[in-house]
Design goal:
Strand order of the largest sheet: 2-1-3
Distance between the termini: 28 Å
Number of strands: 3
Largest sheet: 3 strands, antiparallel
Helix content: 40-55%
Strand content: 5-15%
Number of helices: 6
Number of domains: 1
């Protein structure tokens, strides 16, 4: 669960700090929070991930690496429950889940635009 939330925050802050998405896969508003279904399918059933069989970290440019490291520094030591509670309290996930009862499955997309708008507003407050 932590991996999904950390990937979500990497995408969100990449939109704000770098002005573009970190990856092309869509993020869906699942009942337990934001999920990249492709990543979920790759890592399903694993509790510790040391290597993902798809992709190459050498393709990450310096600016992207800085964003990822900043996200990990801030969010990386948080518990799965803390991260879940946080994503559930924020507008992008909540708006994507509008009209969907709590706990009910959904694959509605959390749009890049909603992420950029919301997290940009947080940046402005600092």
């Amino acid at each position: 669960m932590n991996l999904q939330k950390l990937v979500y925050y990497c995408q969100a802050w990449s939109l704000v700090w770098d002005g573009k998405p970190l990856f092309k896969e869509r993020i869906e508003a699942w009942a337990n929070g934001p999920v990249v279904s492709e990543l979920y399918n790759l890592c399903r059933g694993e509790y510790f991930i040391s290597d993902i069989p798809k992709g190459d970290s050498n393709n990450i440019i310096s600016k992207q690496r800085e964003t990822i490291l900043a996200v990990l520094k801030y969010y990386g030591d948080k518990s799965p429950q803390w991260l879940s509670d946080l994503t559930h309290s924020e507008d992008p996930w909540r708006k994507a889940r509008e009209g969907i009862p709590e706990g009910v499955r959904s694959n509605k997309e959390i749009t890049l635009a909603s992420m950029e708008e919301y997290y940009s507003s947080l940046q402005e407050k600092k």
